[in-house]
Amino acid sequence: QVQLVESGGGLVQPGGSLSLSCVASGFTFSRYTMSWFRQAPGKERELVATVTSTGISTTDAESLKGRFTISRDNAQNTVYLQMNSLEPEDTAVYYCYAQHRTWRSDNYWGQGTQVTVSS
Length: 119
Known about the structure:
Layout: E1 3-7, E2 10-12, E3 18-25, E4 32-39, E5 46-51, E6 57-59, E7 68-73, E8 78-83, E9 92-100, E10 107-109, E11 113-117
Parallel strand pairs: 2-11
Antiparallel strand pairs: 1-3, 3-8, 4-5, 4-9, 5-6, 7-8, 9-10, 9-11
């Protein structure tokens, strides 16, 4: 059974940091590109960052570069998202996403973890 289990969300003050984790099971983690998406209330889900199966990472939006960093540990079947200098606009549900590096239709979503940035 495939599972992506996110953790690490919560309430943080503006300027603070959080580290999200996503533990994968039920598939060969090292063969999948891993991404973090987020969805704020009333908005569409958007891509935050991606790390390939070989560890090449990209952060999607200009507003996130320098603040958000994605990484992975294939030995632990885990992908991380380090978020620094958080802003109220970063408030959203953050989702972990796995996509096979070759067969793009082979993909999975986690249940999401809430991140709230507020004073």
